[in-house]
Amino acid sequence: MKAIDWKRHEHNIYDKIIRWFEIIKEVLEDPTVLPENTYNMDETGVMLSMLNSIKVLVRREDPRDYRGTIVKRKSITAIECISADGRVLSPMIIWPATTLRDNWHTFETPGWHYTCSETGYTNSKISLEWLKLVFDPQTKEQAKGKPRALISDGFGSHETLEIQEFCFDNNILLCRIPSYSSHKLQPCDLTVFPSLKDAYREEADQLYQGGERTINNEHFVYMYAPAREKAFTKRNITSGWAASGLVPFNPDRVLRVTPKPPPLSQETDSRINGIQVDSSQNEILQTPVTPVSAEAFVSLYNQIEQNIHTEPGTSRLQKWVQKLANAGQSTFAECALLQDQNQLLRKLNNQAKVRRSTKSTILARGEGKVMSFEDIIAARVARVEKDVIKGKGKRGRKRKSVALEAGEPDAEAEPGPEVARTAKEVIKGQGKRGRKRKIAVCEADEPVPAPEPEAAQIINVPGPWRAPVARMI
């Protein structure tokens, strides 16, 4: 049974649903609001590297019920918008970062927009930029001056004063779904987003099968783009609008939904599992052994050839023929799987080459900075032109000067005159309060004097200081 917040239970949101349909009915029945001008916008978080649960054939003695995973608890947000007639707008991807990196956008996605926030979630600034750069340009021509209805959840960033002013100025009717009821009233949550998550996990599985053990930001668009094409079909989109009771308008589709029946008891489950295990064991015992190597295959063929005349039509001979057929089927199936695996590996290698050849260059800084894919391409071209002007090589080496290229000696390369080192002799003595006094004998710009004989050095060393004593006459 799926866990759900108690505030989302049918008993607590029933009155909200009734009130919602009373309000939205007036909007949808307006003759100027057409289905092609009715939209639903929502954000979805996609975990970067969550794998699907899969079914695997293992031996009965193998107790494992799990497999390795590459899960990173990093979620990337995508803002999606669908229309009631089955269309989908270009998305906006929100990276959990403070800068936009070039190697995150190597997969071609014309029309997409990218931005970043420190938390990885949307905010009022990003929501306003989405309205200005994504929703309004892609729906204004379709509306032809008629009002556009935009249905969204009650998230606080969707209801700021700037957003309401922009919607009022551009004839956009902003409709807010009641709190804790989006799982029943929002078309995106009912059909599109579940299909999107499943398709994305399949792409992550393929990357895992291809040998990739670490999935980072540069892999996300490669997986999200094909998953999005599988999920955002016209059939899925229109099914979501129908399941929400909006288009066609039918509140009974939501109000008649009842909770799922309780699960079977543990005792019944154990009996069913026991029956399944027994039947599978009997089936395994009755299944003939199939050769899995070339030697076993040839040996089985020789047995059939020797006994085909002595024991024609016997059950033993039929079993051998069945084993031989099973071996052939297994071989062809294995070849087909290997071909699919090779195609997948070639595809992943080609994608990896593009990712490795693109440097992690900062394209934009600051939270809420939005760039379209076309802006990213223009930034790359500008950077390449700038590098050519600077004359950078493959490894960023600086070009040699014209004098060196012509074979002329470089004046700066000649060593200058040696600088005389500073020689200092420190004479230790006791001053007032026991401090040690340092006396510089030679300055840095004076020539170093010749060393004195050892005897002279001993004579010149001052003795300890003594107070003067008056002599008695």
UniProtKB/TrEMBL annotation:
InterPro entries: CenT-Element_Derived, DDE_SF_endonuclease_dom, RNaseH_sf. It comes from the Eukaryota. One of its GO terms (cellular component) is nucleus. One of its GO terms (molecular function) is DNA binding. Residues 391-419 are annotated as: Disordered. Residues 391-401 have a biased composition (Basic residues). Residues 74-241 form the DDE-1 domain. This is DDE-1 domain-containing protein.
